[in-house]
């Protein structure tokens, strides 16, 4: 007898099932999280993965044997180790997500190669690509040929392969393509992802494995699957960047073994991902000595990064002047323009204003406000800014220059790189650097008098 399909509606935040669609989940109270799923009637639901698990005894802390040298494995990739908090932790499960084509599989293959060179055994389970495709990519990336591969996508078979193998690390590519034959839904649904993650987590704990799981993202940029997926894993990594740009940033959204404030910076090249050991200067190449250009400092994780802000102000021939911002929020640009017009009496309302963050970087912090204002004024007046100058500070609505977090760290890094003129808010910061001038204007008006 043919199995019938049935529609159910499941909340991707808490997993609650409904017989009809609801705008708000009645269990967790979240809006827009109830999604339609197809289940096949007639299949047996799998029992809980914990059903046959042995009971664990109670131990005192001083009875537990722990050694960082034995239970934390360095990946051999310093930028990845930085984000992880030193390396992979034994008996852990990690989730790596990111946009399609961003380099998730490349990063995992390079990590596998590094681990094999450190005498670890790695099993790569690719449910998306054929072993021939992985082989071709491994040759391009010069990955060790000792890597073990399989195309298995059935959860029970994967579990058996992991248990029988002597591998220390297991890479799953990807969690959305694995399915359990006993669960009455197709691969990629909430119940399948949830069941697979629970099963893999228990194998990691019971067999002393490190499981690395690759996950897809939705159109909105969230990790595909139930929110519970992020709670079940130990580490959640997000790989971001633009496919047309060569830089990539690895962030930690959750880390039970280290800080979530560190980032790893990579460059995508033909031979794979290359680490950027000093990201502070990565976006500073070929900075022109022209009007409309200003350098700013942002903090990514705990690392200062210096970026160039370019502005072009030109006479408008439209009834409504154009406002274009690339890399910053357009609302922030409008606020900066309003401050310039009100506090400096420059009639920018008659001009088209175009603003760009060089390198395709997207800035989320207000510390670039001062640099944006200087770049716009420089273009408006068509006057160059002092050479080797950098602007650090938030611009308030009254035209005052406000303090930003970690300013001492930003100044120290700017001085180290070679900036001679550093403009910061009026704070108690001593100038301990030779041949470097630190300016502390209170307002944007004072700053303009100093620069122009």
TrEMBL record:
GO molecular function: ATP binding; ATP-dependent DNA damage sensor activity; damaged DNA binding; hydrolase activity; zinc ion binding
KW NAD (keyword) present: no
Location of the motif RadA KNRFG motif: 254-258
Lon-protease-like, as annotated region: 352-452
RecA family profile domain segment(s): 69-217
GO cellular component, as recorded: cytosol
Protein name per Swiss-Prot or TrEMBL: DNA repair protein RadA
Organism the protein comes from: Candidatus Mcinerneyibacterium aminivorans
């Amino acid at each position: 007898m043919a199995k019938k399909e049935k529609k159910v509606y499941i909340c991707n935040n808490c997993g609650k099932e409904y017989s009809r669609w609801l705008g708000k989940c009645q269990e967790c109270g979240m809006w827009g999280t109830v999604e339609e799923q197809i289940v096949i009637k007639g299949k047996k639901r799998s029992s809980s993965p914990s059903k046959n698990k042995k009971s664990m005894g109670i131990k005192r802390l001083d009875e537990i044997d722990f050694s960082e040298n034995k239970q934390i494995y360095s990946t051999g990739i310093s930028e990845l180790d930085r984000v992880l908090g030193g390396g992979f932790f034994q008996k852990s499960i990690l989730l790596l997500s990111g946009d399609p084509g961003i380099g998730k599989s490349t990063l995992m293959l390079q990590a596998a190669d590094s681990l094999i060179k450190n005498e670890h055994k790695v099993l790569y389970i690719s449910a998306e690509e054929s072993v021939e495709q992985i082989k071709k990519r491994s040759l391009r990336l010069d990955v060790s040929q000792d890597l073990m591969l399989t195309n298995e996508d059935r959860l029970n078979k994967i579990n058996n392969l992991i248990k029988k193998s002597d591998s220390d690390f297991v890479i799953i590519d990807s969690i959305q393509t694995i399915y359990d034959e006993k669960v009455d839904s197709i691969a990629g649904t909430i119940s399948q992802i949830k069941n697979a993650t629970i099963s893999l987590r228990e194998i990691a704990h019971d067999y002393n494995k490190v499981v690395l799981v690759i996950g897809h993202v939705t159109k909105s940029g969230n990790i595909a699957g139930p929110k519970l997926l992020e709670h079940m894993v130990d580490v959640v990594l997000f790989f971001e960047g633009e496919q047309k740009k060569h830089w990539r940033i690895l962030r930690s959204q959750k880390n039970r073994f280290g800080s979530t404030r560190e980032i790893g910076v990579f460059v995508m090249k033909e031979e794979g991902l290359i680490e950027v050991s000093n990201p502070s200067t990565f976006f500073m190449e070929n900075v022109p000595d022209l009007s409309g250009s200003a350098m700013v400092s942002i903090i990514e994780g705990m690392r200062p990064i210096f970026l160039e802000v370019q502005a072009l102000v030109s006479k408008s021939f439209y009834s409504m002047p154009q406002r274009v911002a690339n890399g910053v929020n357009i609302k922030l640009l409008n606020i900066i323009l309003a401050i310039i017009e009100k506090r400096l009496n420059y009639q920018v309302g008659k001009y088209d204003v175009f603003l760009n963050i060089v390198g395709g970087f997207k800035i989320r912090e207000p510390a670039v406000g001062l640099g944006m204002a200087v770049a716009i004024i420089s273009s408006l007046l068509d006057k160059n800014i002092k050479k080797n100058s950098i602007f650090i500070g938030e611009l308030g609505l009254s035209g005052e220059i406000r303090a930003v977090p970690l300013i001492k760290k930003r100044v120290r890094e700017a001085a180290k790189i070679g900036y001679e003129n550093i403009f910061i808010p009026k704070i108690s910061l001593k100038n301990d650097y030779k041949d470097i001038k630190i300016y502390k204007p209170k307002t944007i008006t004072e700053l303009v008098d100093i620069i122009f």
